[in-house]
Amino acid sequence: MAAWQVLHTHDGVDRKIVGCSRNVKGTPVKSARKILQGSAGAAVPMAGVYRYTFETSTTVSCARISKMDYANPLVFSGVRSVTTDGTFENLNLLPGWAIVMAEDAHPGDVFEIGIGCVLEADGMTWHRVLSFGPRLAGYRSASVELVAKNASGVPLSDCMVTATNAIRAQNLGDSTSPFLMFRQTGPLNPFADDDPNGASVSFGQYSLLGHPHKYADILVNGQPVDIHDVAANKLIPGGKELVCDGTTTYRFADGSKHQSGTFILAEQMGPALTATLHVSDGAESVRIHDGTGSVVSGPAGLILTQDGEDRGRISAGGTARFEVQIDPTERPAADLNARSFSLRVSGMDGETPVSVEHQGSFVLISGTGELNLRIDSVSRAYARPRYSEDPEVPGNYIEDDEGLYVEDEQNPGTFILATEDPNGGYYGNYADYLSANGITFSN
User: Fold this and answer.
1) Residue 363, pLDDT score
2) Which terminus of the chain has fewer CB atoms gathered within 10 Å of its CB, N or C?
3) Other C-beta atoms lying within 10 Å of the C-beta of residue 210
4) What is the C-alpha separation between 74 and 63, in angstroms, rounded?
5) Which helix or strand (DSSP H or E) is residue 430 part of?
6) How far apart are CA 377 and CA 407, in angstroms?
């Protein structure tokens, strides 16, 4: 069990936001579980809904199904091979998730995994919690109320929640190497990338006489960096002689660009293994408050206190509520979309830190995107009901607020894209669509 649980009250129930899965067509997924910190393939994926389709009986593609998940870099192109024997845990579809496929998975089967999301009571519709979607600079989002539950089994002190820039590690070997595990820990805020391509990580590797494991010198963009040995609590200048044993935990040194990035190196390290580190700039747009009117920036953090306890203290099994919203600051580097942030709840068990991380996301839009979003909000307020095609019954359409279809008024019972002109062609934009439906607007 995780030492902390972050919950969201929905349908009258406090529900975990770590993520869950659902079969959309067929029953291709037997189980999908979040990998515990320190286990093979442990990582934290960006919030959003990921839809996977079996293209063949052993390959799947990945897509986004809503603009709420626009520009999510973890949606891969092409297909990836999977094992469908009912027991094997596939680690290559979503960082940090082990997915077991049914033996009878068929081409055309579809499943989804929602991260930072919960399923509505009907089990068919996603309620996005930490995926905030398109946002405008200067326009604050609605607040999302969350609950931090101390699941460690012991009382914790110095409890707080912070939101920092998010580090994403992309292994360029396989899903578990060179980084067997990569997470963020502690309250420090890593420095956002200037280059959307991120930073390259390589290793000088060798064996030491009489030692059973390989050792590696870590290089970021070809340069040595200082590393902290977490268990030994010591600094390793230049990141030299890091042991590749699949258990030793390291962290980029405080004050470095990638501070708070915590990792374990795989035991099976080859000389050509490399990785890429990406640091998004979402933290400055996050606001956290406790519902009393006090609002703090994400990196500054908010002290969490259980009702009736001393400041910063939460008992075993106890909870503290807080709220998160996005208030985007303008950023020139559009290539860094989608923005992500690391929401971290932490506390101290004596001298031992206890923390959990979830990555949230949003997309900053500006220029014509701002106008389109304004018009879109008007169209959703006044337009005809939206529909989506029923994944279980092709050709049947069901009401869906996020749907792309409307009923063709000239041909009741048939459905067309919301931007499709029944007389032929498509409306050029939302303004034309609204005008054709008798709606006018002004800025």
Assistant:
1) 81
2) C
3) 5
4) 10
5) helix 430-436
6) 19
Helix (H) / strand (E) element for 377: namely helix 368-382
Cβ burial of 39 (10 Å; 0-12, 13-18, 19+) is middle
d(CA 1, CA 209): 39
80 within 8 A of 93, measured Cβ to Cβ:
yes
Residue appearing with tokens 């600051």? 329
Element housing 55 (H / E): none
pLDDT at 137: 77
Q: Which amino acid belongs to residue 345?
A: V
Please give the distance of CA 228 from its chain centroid, rounded to a whole number: 26
Peptide bond into 178 cis (omega under 30): yes
Rounded Cα distance, 96 and 41, in Å:
5
Q: What pLDDT, on a 0 to 100 scale, did the predictor assign at position 252?
A: 98
* pLDDT tens digits, 289-343: 987 777 899 999 999 999 999 999 999 999 999 999 999 876 645 555 678 899 9
Dist. CA 88–CA 100, nearest whole Å? 6
Q: Distance of alpha carbon 337 from its chain centroid, rounded?
A: 13
Q: Which is it for the CA torsion 429, 430, 434, 439, positive or negative?
A: negative
User: What is the Cα–Cα distance from 76 to 423, expressed in whole angstroms?
Assistant: 37
Task: Report the phi/psi class of residue 28: left, alpha or beta, with left for phi > 0 and alpha for psi in -120 to 50.
Answer: alpha
Q: Is the peptide bond before 338 cis (omega within 30 degrees of 0)?
A: yes
The per-residue pLDDT for 382 is 47
Residue with more model confidence, 293 or 166: 166
What stretch of H or E contains 406?
A: strand 405-407
What residues are paired with 192 via a beta bridge?
Answer: none
The gap from C-alpha 364 to its chain's centroid, in whole angstroms, comes to 16
214-224 average pLDDT score: 94
Task: Report which residue type is found at 422.
Answer: P
Range 1-17 burial, b when 16+ CB lie within 10 A, else e: ebbbbbbbebeeeebbb
H/E element holding 375? helix 368-382
Rounded Cα distance, 302 and 300, in Å: 7
Q: Please state the separation of Cα 237 from the chain's center in Å.
A: 32
- The 10s digit of each residue's pLDDT in 5-49 is 999 988 788 899 999 999 999 999 999 999 987 788 888 888 999
Higher pLDDT, 412 or 115: 115
The backbone torsions φ and ψ at residue 68, rounded to the nearest 5 degrees and listed phi first, read -60, -25
The pLDDT of residue 311 is 95
**What per-residue confidence (pLDDT) applies to 122?**
74
